[in-house]
Amino acid sequence: MSERLIVSRDGSPLEDSQIDANFSDMHPPLNKTQAKVESSRCLYCFDAPCIRACPTSIDIPKFIHQIRTQNLTGSAITILSSNIMGGTCARVCPTEILCEGECVLNATGEKPIKIGNLQRYAVDQYLEGNNPHPFNRAKSTGRRIAVIGAGPAGLACAHRSAVQGNKVTVFENKAKPGGLNEYGLAAYKMADDFARKEVDFLLKVGGITIKHGQVLGENLTLANLQSEYDAVFIGTGLGDVNNLRVEGEHLNGVQDAVTFIEELRQTAEKHNISVADNVVVIGGGNTAIDAAVQAKRLGAQNVTLVYRRGTDQMPATEWEQDLVKTNNVNVIYWSKPIVLKGGEKVEEVTFERCILKDGILTGTGNFFNLRADLVLKAIGQMLDKNPLAGLSIENRKIRVDEKYQTNLQGVFAGGDCINSGEDLTVQAVEDGRKAAESMHDYLENKNG
Question: How does pLDDT run across 15-29, given as a tens digit for each residue?
């Protein structure tokens, strides 16, 4: 790694404090006056399209009206009743294509209501007020639930199961709970250790124990959990990353973007991190964007994001695509990696220009090279099937029915490891909540 140096738009070096500022909260929260003004713009639609667009079906007009009338406690409870991780979702949801994208004000040429900002305002006020947990546990059922994975899906499932009166044990392989909220999102999206604060709040409901260092397929088996618990929920996410499958991928300086982002999130003082001068990020999703922007904000002089298709096919949202441009990240479309070159360490990447021919991505025979001290791979993640023997896999994910139950009796799954929609935090939360309800019904009927 070269000596750390970050360069501003005018080319002058920035101080350590300025580097740390690059990773401060990207979206400062609304103040009381701003929240009042914004909430007053809402039309409180009947059969509101914003509700239908929300995977967790939050009653958006209701919580906004509660903000307008200064009932912040009621507003937060309205949100959390549908989405117990509403604080994180307010920060990272692609609201521009979900609730805000469906706001009726768009049709009038006005800007949509800042639903995400208002949701954050209400939830943050509640959490920061050190209020009691808003939900009480039902009478104990005497049943024990095992949850694999302390990510959004697993935690949402654990919370709802605990509220139902079950005793829940969450098995997590990492040192901290939170999953992608803790390890996989850009630092400027989850500033001030919010992921931990949200988990601490969620656990206040009681009845939930988290065991760390538990690795499915190593010191944890699905068969043992089935025998020891009344029901099992799998919320492992996608544990593997896709490889480039090109020569030179083994070189030093070639790293998964997921690992890069995780290391950043777990380092408190960002100005102490060294970064390469020339960074090449391969991929077109939100992970690729997060990696590229953070590399630039860390001090990389040249960051280039390369995607094999065009901007219209890019998985990253329009907002994320704009983010790379405003952070001086170079973007090259219609190009795929051919070979990574170097001695022991990567030095250069050769790409081939591509076109769509009869709907198939095809190389043109036109090649170019990019200098690279660090290559970050962000071409998607995949399910680690090794520890999931006995489960039915469909389209590279765990197959579940409409009740989130797998082909194994009493074993349910949700989140990114199943095909329930977009791989979003908000969808994972909804999966976990609904799976908990299905597990509860399953056990009630089984014992009834």
Answer: 788 788 899 998 889
